[in-house]
Amino acid sequence: MSSTILHLSGLTPSLTKPGLEPIKEPVHSGDGVKAEERKIPFLVALGERVRSLRARRGMTRKALAVAADVSERHLANLEYGVGNASILVLLQVAGALQCSLGELIGDVTTSSPEWLLIRELLEQRDEATLQRVRISIGEMLGTGGGNAGHSPRVALVGLRGAGKSTLGLMLADDLGFPFIELSREIEKFAGCSTAEIQALYGMNAYRRYERRALEEAIQIYPEAVIATPGGLVSDAATFNQLLAHCTTVWLHADPEDHMKRVTAQGDLRPMAASKEAMEDLRGILTGRAAFYSKAQFKLDTSAQPLAPTFLALREIVRKVLQLPA
Q1: Are 71 and 65 in contact (CB under 8 A)?
Q2: pTM attached to this predicted model
Q3: Tens-place pLDDT, residues 24-83
Q4: How far apart are CA 313 and CA 295, in angstroms?
Q5: Cα separation of 156 and 166, whole Å?
Q6: How far is CA 143 from each of CA 112, 128, 225, rounded to the nearest angstrom?
Q7: Cβ atoms within 10 A of the Cβ of 18, count?
Q8: Are 214 and 207 in contact (CB under 8 A)?
Q9: Beta-bridge partners for 85
Q10: Cα–Cα distance between 213 and 205 in angstroms, integer?
């Protein structure tokens, strides 16, 4: 198999012999600094992992080069952090080392022998088994991870337009619990709107505010109905917190109803910039459905009008909290 290597400035390959392209020695760049002195930390770490894995397998560099169908010079540059290899070459090297691409590039679940052994035990397991393992680990570590089935802290999850705010407020009034709109709490922490947080500081900052808002809500309110942002499930740590400390209900609706309700609210984020808004919405719903489904209960808010939908939600929650119907 021929190999394609992309190189840093000053490392230009000859293409006369595909699969065995010789690489020139590092040269001075325009600013007088040798390319080898401007190594990129990620590439250096990648090279160290390749050497470590090669040593673990008991392979010489020459043997690995032959097994991966990569020139030995290319492999040397990769190991010393001066060769920026294409993804296809990394796949070849990973295959020759009998490891996953994740292990080669630094996946945290491959960072120690224990991680690797745990990962191997979990590979090929079905979703039900993985869920039991996740809950057991959370209980062992005291960090939760399972559904708090009888928690009087009720969290509604689902895509925007599912009815979390409307039904959540109705449920809170019925139960006599505080109603927490988590998006508003995030804005209080940040001192600006959620849109401004993302525009000014980025999504990572928004997720930090989101986690902080949820943690504070959990600490302050032993009883509450919490309407969560649709994207909260995107952050595994925050979603684990929610599952561990709240009774969770997934409110879901048909994509057409989601779009209709969001349009009525005058808010098309994150579909506003797309000419294919419905397609985008369907994609978001599909991508998050597997996470929403981890909620303890599920309620279709498109199946019937608001009043009977609320009564169905009320019945679910009052039953699990062992309250009078």
Answers
A1: yes
A2: 0.70
A3: 434 334 444 454 456 788 899 899 889 888 887 788 889 899 999 999 998 999 999 887
A4: 14
A5: 11
A6: 22, 20, 21
A7: 10
A8: no
A9: 5
A10: 12
| 3-state secondary structure string across the chain | CCCCEEECCCCCECCCCCCCCCECCCCECCCCCEHHHHCCHHHHHHHHHHHHHHHHHCCCHHHHHHHHCCCHHHHHHHHCCCEEECHHHHHHHHHHHCCCHHHHHCCHHHCCHHHHHHHHHHCCCCHHHHHHHHHHHHHHHCCCCCCCCCCCEEEEECCCCCCHHHHHHHHHHHHCCCEEEHHHHHHHHHCCCHHHHHHHHCHHHHHHHHHHHHHHHHHHCCCEEEECCHHHHHCHHHHHHHHHHCEEEEEECCHHHHHHHHHHHCCCCCCCCCCCHHHHHHHHHHHHHHHHCCCCEEEECCCCCHHHHHHHHHHHHHHHCCCCC
When pLDDT is cut at 50, 70 and 90, the band that residue 305 belongs to is very high
Helices 182-190 and 194-201, packing angle to 10 deg: 50
Calculate the alpha carbon distances from 33 to 26, 30, 267, 307 in Å. Answer: 10, 7, 51, 71
**Closest listed residue to residue 181, CA positions, set 143, 232, 233:** 232
Strand-pair partners of 180: 226
Q: Retrieve residue 173's tokens.
A: 């009034």
Distance CA 163, CA 158 (A): 9
How many residues are given for the chain?
325
Question: 287-299, pLDDT tens digit by residue?
Answer: 888 899 999 999 9
Residue 138 structure tokens: 């959370």
Q: Are 249 and 298 in contact, with CB atoms under 8 Å apart? A: yes
Closest listed residue to residue 249, CA positions, set 151, 183, 325: 151
| Range of lowest pLDDT (3-7, 46-50, 170-174, 263-267) | 3-7
Among 68-72, 171-175, 266-270, the minimum mean pLDDT is found in 266-270
Structure tokens, 305:
């009008």
